[in-house]
Write a structure and sequence with these properties.
Distance between the termini: 36 Å
Helix content: 40-55%
CATH architecture of one domain: Orthogonal Bundle
Strand content: under 5%
Low-confidence stretches: none
CATH topology of one domain: 434 Repressor (Amino-terminal Domain)
CATH superfamily of one domain: lambda repressor-like DNA-binding domains
Mean pLDDT: 89
Shape: globular
Structural class: mainly alpha
Length: 89
């Protein structure tokens, strides 16, 4: 197979951040005075299982966020999903 047909990595992933919501999730969590563990427990009540370590990686933009997780965050923080997207990204 020639080089022109090889699959390359996603250019967005190569640039660094893998989500657009990390800064906002952290800011909203701190605004609500929630620990990462408390946020994890709130997600669990919505049948969304994200451990404390994964919340840390989401906030550091090192972990992707599924649509179900995004929806759960919007419900917990009582904001529309589109408001979770970081404005500077």
């Amino acid at each position: 197979m020639s080089d022109s047909y090889r699959l390359s990595k996603d250019p967005i992933e190569e640039q660094g951040p893998v989500n657009l919501v990390g800064n906002t999730i952290r800011a909203l969590r701190l605004q609500k005075n929630l620990s990462q563990q408390e946020l994890s427990a709130k997600l669990e009540t919505l049948a969304v299982y994200v451990c404390r370590g994964s919340i840390s990686r989401i906030e550091d933009k090192q972990r992707k966020v599924s649509d179900r997780e995004l929806y759960a965050f919007s419900k917990i923080f009582r904001v529309p999903m589109e408001d979770l997207i970081d404005k500077e990204d």
